[in-house]
Structure of M20 family metallopeptidase:
Amino acid sequence: MSTEAQITDWLASQKEAMLAELAEMVNTDGGSYDKEGVDRTGAQVRRFLDSHGIPTETLPQQKHGDCIRGIVDGGHALGTGNQRANIVLMGHRDTVFPKGEPERRPFRIENGRAYGPGVADMKAGIVMNMFVLAAFRKFGGAPGPLVGLFTGDEEIGSPEGRPVIEAEAKNARVVFNSEPGRASGNVVKARKGGVFSVVDLEGKAAHSGGNFEAGISAIGEAANKIVAIHALTDLKRGITLNVGLIQGGQSVNTTAPNCQFQIDLRYVEPADRDEIMGKIHDIVARAYVPGTKSRLTIKGEFLPLNPTPASDRVFAVYQAAAADSGLTVEGEFTGGCADSGFTAALGAPTLCAVGPVGGLAHSPEEYLDVESFVPRAQAMARAIARLEQTGL
């Protein structure tokens, strides 16, 4: 039996073990700002990898979940001492949900779908990566060193994880990011970049009935700025702007002394980022209501994932590997952002959303297609085993 067949047969035998690991992870708190909870999921990853003889390294983070690296040595895998650049299996352990959500909505399986906070986005992808690493550690066959990188703050733009990801990308031969497969079963070849920023505005309080003229409305200023910012949307270029949060004011009968709103910018081409951010800075600097003051702060950022000839070759190999695993897979574009943009920007051929298939992420209805777990793991394993076909 070939090594590839040994690996895929073993993965087929691990479905219940995969679901058990997933249940434990989903039932563990893991919101991006819950460092303790995210670190508990990191401890689970380390325990699993240690039990399969895979050494791990913990990269401590100050505010968010620690980053974990699991390493399957290429020399062990091939028996040749191969030291080629790393094949990176990447994923984030954090979710968007508040503390206590797993207790309110614990892991469950109904009618072939698994439910629970973060079940698809992306705890299933984390578990899949764990088992693929274990398979190559057990049977060998990887054409170079494998690195499993498990981060803890992607849902808020990877403020601490980004430098770790970028350092890994500089020595990456290829990157598989195990975000959830699309509901269609497809993987993602391209993503938009995104900038998430906050505008704080200052006005002057005054009684809105008895002393109206003395007031300077921060809310009035925000309204003008929001209209101008939304007008920067250019759908033909894939540029969208959305002010999704706003708060401010003191009382209904007081001219608003303060206001804050948050902007979501999405774009496709890297050059568009600087152009639109420049226009946003100009809008923020302008006082539509005389006497107001405004400040813009960037809180998080993702880079776009754009296809390259190298990533297209990786996709072709993955697509054939998926077909041999019983899957029909195409590549698609999405407006969502992910850590894969950071690795692609540094020249690492990157394929995203290769994790098990799911949908309705970030909602109480988020689900995972249970039957996709094994074939998606097999597809990744086959693609890794056949990586030499890419010429990379």
